Amino acid sequence: xxxxxxxxxxxxxxxxxxxxxxxxxxxxxxxxxxxxxxxxxxxxxxxxxxxxxxxxxxxxxxxxxxxxxxxxxxxxxxxxxxxxxxxxxxxxxxxxxxxxxxxxxxxxxxxxxxxxxxxxxxxxxxxxxxxxxxxxxxxxxxxxxxxxxxxxxxxxxxxxxxxxxxxxxxxxxxxxxxxxxxxxxxxxxxxxxxxxxxxxxxxxxxxxxxxxxxxxxxxxxxxxxxxxxxxxxxxxxxxxxxxxxxxxxxxxxxxxxxxxxxxxxxxxxxxxxxxxxxxxxxxxxxxxxxxxxxxxxxxxxxxxxxxxxxxxxxxxxxxxxxxxxxxxxxxxxxxxxxxxxxxxxxxxxxxxxxxxxx
Length: 358
Ligand code: ADP
Ligand code: MG
Prior knowledge:
Number of domains: 2
Helix content: 10-25%
Largest sheet: 6 strands, mixed
Strand order of the largest sheet: 6-7-8-3-9-10
CATH topology of the largest domain: Rossmann fold
Mean pLDDT: 94
CATH superfamily of the largest domain: P-loop containing nucleotide triphosphate hydrolases
Low-confidence stretches: none
Oligomer: single chain
Shape: globular
CATH architecture of the largest domain: 3-Layer(aba) Sandwich
Bound molecules: adenosine-5'-diphosphate, magnesium ion
Structural class: alpha+beta
């Protein structure tokens, strides 16, 4: 297992990149701590696979270095990096049995036969394929083949890191939770450095100690699920994480007051003069309906989602969502919204500005 350092790393698929826009991965400096479980979260096309393939050595970066425990591996081939990678779609040897597929990475490294047999049995249990060990991979469903790919990724205990690139895409929904749990328990028992790529926030937040959020080729925040929820560093994190995501409203900011269309909104923190595109961000959990004070809104609909209600409202064309308690009665006169002063974030050009406690 190893600490993985990305030093000034960037990648463009173009031969002569001219501007930052030409980079699929914008400049990045980051240490992936030894033994930590990370999720790499972002929408399709934001650069997740590009980053993963650079770490494993499938792709050579156009700029910067990769170090494993301080040793430069930028020019080292995949095999020398000693990494297990599982892809979105199955990679299995069709003519081999399930058992032979699972044993392959171990045999390849000259592991002892008794150890291989025991370890294959253990992994087969984790992926629920003990009964199919002697079947040829050919003819199995995509779902079963992907489980073999996962098993092959997990079988070696001596890898520097385990990289998973949206590995549950073709897995049956009811098996997803089960396999994710197995990956977590694998992490607990072996303490591998793991990077798990997903575009699904629930998967990311339940799998990882730390979540790395990417947007448009850039890492915009690295944090615990709590940090991403409470203090989104970028408007994208606020919007992408949470259900529904954070409310974002253009505002003027003066000291401890946010001003929207003549309505003053008190904040618990103060801000110096700010310039650029200014917005406040408040999660629906910290937004309340009121009959007497706040920002006037138009209520479009109320959804009952069991644990609570989601009120979908609108302020001059901008959606505002409010989470109300399950039993809350929402009167026809409640057409204003207020925000919990301590939970208001301020953004300048999409980046969070740290306020001073007032
Ligand atoms: P993700 O895995 O987050 O969906 P990718 O890393 O696959 O994103 O892609 C990031 C960007 O790089 C996208 O705009 C994609 O179109 C582009 N891209 C990916 N692979 C290649 C390639 N081999 N050649 C050119 N462009 C690519
Ligand atoms: Mg991808």
